[in-house]
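To fix ideas, we close by showing one paired sequence and structure record:
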Amino acid sequence: MNKILVAYDGGEPSRRALETAAELAGALGAMVSVVSVVPARAGRAPMDPWDDSSIHASQLLEAKKILLERGIEPELIEPVGDPAKTIERIADEGGFDTIVLGSRGLGTVERVLQGSVSEHVATHSGATVVIAH
């Protein structure tokens, strides 16, 4: 593990993912990048006004602070797009060998209706995927 991409949205599952990524990076001397994807949705209003760029920028600064306290200087990435596909694309294009994500613990019905970013990334990415519970 040389390059770790951690998905962060400020929620408890992503905090666990951030802690896991920090532990791995500390033990292995790996570089860490944090991604917070601003979701783009089709239709008249492609972006949720409660899930805009400023919220994601704030989340990234929070993640950076947490990692800096552990002696890790992260790269911050704030793209717009479908979260699962965007995380996969960034990992592939950036040469990340590890992706760390949190799991919201969705049940079967919720996964079908909402989709699970962690499940999609785990089954479609070429990188090693760690899902923090």
Notes: The beta strands are 3-7, 31-35, 38-39, 75-77, 80-81, 98-102, 128-132. The mean pLDDT is 86. Residues 87 and 93 are 10 Å apart (CA to CA). The chain has five helices and seven strands.
